[in-house]
Structures are given as C-alpha cells and as structure tokens.
Amino acid sequence: MGAHLVRRYAGYPEPDPLNLPTFSPELGFPEGRKERVMIATQKEMEDAQLPIEQRDYCAHHLIKWLKCRRDNWPNFLACKHERHDWDYCEHQDYVMRMKEYERERRLLMRNKRIEEKRAAESLGM
Description:
- Helices cover 56% and strands 0% of the residues.
- It has helices at residues 3-10, 42-47, 59-71, 80-122.
C-alpha cells in the first residue's frame, strides 16, 4: 500500500499508462514474440451490439456468454462455463497488461542506471 508513492518520491522512473510503450516489444526476446490476435471480428461485435469498452481480446468469450444467456433464458445458471471462460480471459488480459507495465518500468530504470553510470564515468569518478 503506497508503493507507487514511494517510487515517485524516490525519483524512480514510471511509465505513463496512457501512452504507448517507449521500448521495442522485441527487446529481450531473441526469437521474437507471439503477436496477439483478435478472434472476434468487427462485424461479429457489431452484430452482438457490444459496447466499445468491451471490444477487447476477450470479446469472443463475451459473445458466447451473451448468446448462451439469451438462448437459455430464464435458466441463466446454465451458462456458468461461458461466464467463467470470459472472466478468466479478462483476468489473463489484465495480468498481461500489468506485466507489460512492469517490463516498461524496469527498462526505464535500467536506462536510468546506464545513463548515471555513463555520467559518473565521464566525470572521471
């Protein structure tokens, strides 16, 4: 509780969550990274009338869950598996975004250490 305040007070660099990452996504991955792919198409999301804020990488699970709820109404408990799949996908997406944020933060700290080391060497310390 309050770790982010300590980091800001101590002057550690923090990435801006509203901007794109400043480092290459391939940095540190010699074989490259697997790119995320949207499974639900724009047409499917429009047909399902998904709000803009729910059109993410888990939209295909949400569409399945909403369809199941519609087809099995009023027995909404028949769709527990679809709901679980959607919740799990949302959780995995959140974890991935937090890992990306932490990777960006650590790379910023690494750059700061490298720059401080170069500055110390140029001063002859």
